[in-house]
Structure formats: C-alpha cells, structure tokens
C-alpha cells in the first residue's frame, strides 16, 4: 500500500483510536467464539445457538436507531465510553456466571441480548466518531483504515479466542473481552475530538414516524430499493452461515472451540486478502458487476461448505465467503452513498444498517431450527441454493444495473460495520458502465 493510504495516522487522536479499536475488536472475538461454544456445550442444539445469535442482533437492531439520533446531538466520545463500559460489564457478568456454575442456556441468551443492546449503542457512534478525528479531506481514508482494523482483528481474534476457550475455559475468554473494552475506555480518555459543539438542538425521538418517512424516500429510488433488498438477502441467508459454522466445528468435524475460532479466522483472511483487489476495482468496474460476481461466489462457497468432506477442505470456501462478503458490502455501501441527497444521507444509512441487523438474527434463528430438523449439511445446502436463487432473480429482472446509478453530490459517510466492509471509490461522474 502506498504511504498515502496511511495519511490519517498522521493525526494523533485517530492513531490512538485505531490501535485501541484493533485491540478491543480482537479481544471481543474471544467473546464471540466463547458464547456460541458455551450455548452449544450446554444444549448441543443448533436451535439454541441460533436463538442466542437472534437475541444479540435483534437487540442491536432495536437500539441502533436511537444511537444514531444520540450520536448527532450528544458528545460521541462520552457515549462511546459509556457503551464500551457496558460491554465490558456484560463480559464480566458472563465470566462470573460461568465461574459460579451457572449452566442455564437461557441465562447466556439473556446476557447475549444485553451485549447486543450495548453493542447497538456503540456501533453507529463508533463509526460516526471517526469523522471527528481527521479533516474532511481524509475522511474516506480514515473510514478505509477503520475497515482495515476491523478485518485485521478477525485474523487473530477468533483463532486465539478458540484456543483460549479450549485451553483455559470460557471464563478467561470473557475476561479478555472485558479487558479489551477497558483499553478503549482508557484510549478515549486521552483522545481530543475536533468537534467542539457536540449538541445541536433537541433530538427527535419520533423514531417510527422518521423511519416511515425514510422508507418512503428509499422506495422512490429503485437503486436504493435494490441495495436494500440485496442487503436483506445477504443478512438473512449469507451472514447466518458464518456463526452457525460452530455446528460443523463441534458436531461434524469434532474440532471444538479451537476449530470454530480457526473457521472464523479464515473468514477474516479472505476479507483482508480481497480488500486491495476490491479497492482497485473502484472506478473501473461497475458496481453491479462486482455485486453479481460476489453473490455467485458467495452462494457456491456456501454449497461447498455443505459438502466439504474434511476440516481442511471446509476452510477454503470460508475464505471465499469472507472475500465475497467484503466485495458485496463494499459495492452496496458505495451504491447507497451515491444515490442519496446530502440532507437524507445519515437517515438512509441508519435504515440500511437496521435492515442488515434485523435480517441477520431472523436468518440465524431459521437456520438453527432448520439444522435441528434436517441436519447441518442439508441446511447449509438449502441456504446456498436460496442465495443463488436470489442472485438469479435479481439478475433476471435487471435490477442489479440500478446499483450503477449516481445522483447528487458524493460525500463519504461513515457506515456502521456489522461485518467486514471496505468502501470502494465511486466511478468518476459521467462515466458509464462497461
């Protein structure tokens, strides 16, 4: 990468925030590995594992719109310190519960929901805070570096988390997650923000009315509708595959938490490896083409998971899924950015994130029950077929071409990340798809 790619590191506050973020996100993966492993250990039920994922992401979806409003009207640094403290306390509660002999799966599902509430408050504010740490001309650079730190944490966090759960137990893994949250709180205490006036007017909490108005705005632009439909397809059919791989780690290949951590790490390896390729395509390849290829690769990789005969052969399609997800999310995020008016940008992006976070838990819940009914391999095969069928439908009606439309003035907005994304530069204004 050229030196210009690290320009935002020239600003002390962003540099501190970035390293604090990569530390905390790596540590949080310890919890993400330990929690489904605990639920599986207590129940041996894919349905319970899916329910735990549903509880966490559903809670995030409920809180995220409120967090977006708060982030626009109150000091983001203080909100982040509060949310990180809450996330750390929930991790401590998980550790203490395991140490004290609590073996009720319902208790850990409830704690997963509590973690989701704290995470839903943290997620939009974390991303919005980046804009306060660098000048406007470096915002896209800072967003890209922020994506890099998230993806980098996936390279080591899941693998080390799995090893820790297998060797030292879930309580230690939960404790590492809590320590990571503490690191961020300490870092935030030393950061100076460029934003001096943190409150503008009184935030409107008429969330239902606001959401309906934004939904009408999105519905009037077919390119946005296509982006939202595609995001819902990925969220409900693609993303649940990633967390339910714990069933293959525990039940199919008998590799335990360590194997599950390595599986999640391979997703990060694929995403990081694909990042420079996807970034280089921006401005040269139509977003519709990137999205089409990404969805096809995603679907066939999920089918490959369903039939992989060995643990080693299972890891290869996981890396392809990580790469395909990054390419898909990059194309979708950029398409949405270029099709909204400036005064609607934040509201539309909040709705976009809400669609992702609400479709994901529903998909996890259904996939968990499907695995209970027919087994892991047939269930994964069905989800891969659904993903390919959705891709064929989007291509057949010609909707994906609407992702190439550009309206309004481009202004990079910080997009909350649920899973690895890297914003790809838009095509020059006036250019046409190849």
Any overview of this molecule?
The chain is an all-alpha fold and 434 residues long. It has a single domain (3-193, 205-404), classed as Growth Hormone, Chain: A, CATH 1.20.1250. It has 13 helices and no strands. The protein has helices spanning 12-43, 46-71, 76-99, 105-129, 139-168, 170-189, 207-219, 222-252, 256-281, 287-307, 311-337, 345-374, 376-396. Helix 1 runs antiparallel to helix 2, helix 2 runs parallel beside helix 4 (105-129) and helix 3 (76-99) packs antiparallel against helix 4. The two termini are 27 Å apart.
Key words describing this protein structure:
434 residues; 75% helix; 13 helices; disordered C terminus; Growth Hormone, Chain: A
| Amino- and carboxy-terminal Cα gap | 27 Å
Q: Which term fits the overall shape?
A: globular
What is the number of helical segments per DSSP (H or I, 4+ residues)? 13
In CATH, what is the class?
Mainly Alpha
Strand coverage percent: under 5%
CATH topology: Growth Hormone, Chain: A
- Major sheet: size, sense and barrel closure? none
CATH architecture: Up-down Bundle
Content-based structural category: mainly alpha
The number of E-state strands comes to 0
Query: SSE order, as H and E?
Result: HHHHHHHHHHHHH
Mean pLDDT: 81
**How helical, in percent, are the residues?**
over 70%
Return the domain count: 1
Evaluate the radius of gyration: 20 Å
The H-level CATH homologous superfamily, spelled out, is: MFS general substrate transporter like domains
The low-pLDDT segments are: 196-203, 409-434
């Amino acid at each position: 990468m050229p030196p210009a790619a690290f320009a935002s590191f020239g600003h002390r506050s962003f540099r501190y925030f970035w390293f604090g973020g990569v530390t905390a996100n790596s540590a949080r993966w310890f919890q993400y590995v330990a929690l489904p492993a605990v639920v599986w250990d207590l129940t041996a039920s894919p349905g319970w594992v899916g329910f735990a994922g549903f509880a966490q992401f559903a809670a995030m979806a409920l809180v995220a719109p409120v967090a977006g409003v708060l982030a626009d009207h109150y000091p983001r640094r203080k909100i982040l310190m509060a949310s990180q403290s809450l996330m750390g306390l929930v991790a401590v509660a998980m550790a203490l519960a395991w140490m004290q002999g609590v073996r009720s799966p319902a208790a850990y599902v409830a704690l997963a929901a509590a973690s989701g509430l704290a995470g839903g408050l943290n997620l939009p504010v974390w991303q919005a805070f980046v804009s306060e740490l660098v000048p406007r001309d470096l915002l896209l650079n800072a967003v890209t570096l922020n994506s890099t730190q998230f993806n980098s944490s996936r390279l080591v966090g899941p693998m080390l988390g799995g090893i820790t759960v297998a060797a030292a137990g879930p309580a230690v893994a939960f404790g590492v997650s809590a320590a990571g949250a503490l690191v961020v709180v300490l870092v935030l205490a030393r950061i100076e923000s460029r934003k001096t006036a943190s409150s503008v007017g009184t935030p409107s909490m008429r969330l239902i009315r606001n959401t309906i108005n934004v939904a009408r705005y999105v519905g009037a632009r077919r390119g946005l509708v296509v982006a939202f439909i595609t995001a819902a397809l990925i969220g409900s059919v693609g993303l649940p595959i990633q967390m339910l791989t714990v069933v293959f780690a525990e039940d199919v290949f008998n590799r335990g938490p360590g194997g599950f951590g390595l599986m999640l790490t391979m997703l990060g390896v694929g995403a990081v490896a694909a990042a420079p390729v996807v970034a280089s395509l921006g401005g040269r390849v139509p977003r519709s083409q990137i999205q089409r290829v990404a969805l096809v690769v995603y679907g066939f990789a999920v089918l490959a998971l369903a039939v992989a005969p060995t643990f080693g052969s299972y890891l290869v399609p996981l890396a392809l899924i990580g790469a395909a997800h990054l390419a898909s999310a990059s194309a979708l995020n950029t398409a949405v950015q270029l099709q909204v008016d400036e005064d609607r940008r934040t509201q539309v992006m909040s709705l976009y994130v809400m669609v992702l976070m609400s479709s994901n838990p529903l998909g996890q819940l259904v996939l968990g029950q499907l695995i209970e009914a027919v087994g892991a391999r047939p269930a994964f095969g069905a989800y891969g077929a659904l993903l390919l069928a959705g891709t064929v439908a989007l291509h057949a009606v010609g909707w994906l071409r609407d992702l190439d439309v550009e309206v309004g003035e481009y202004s990079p907005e910080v997009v909350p990340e649920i899973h690895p994304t890297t914003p790809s530069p838009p095509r020059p204004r006036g250019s046409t798809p190849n």
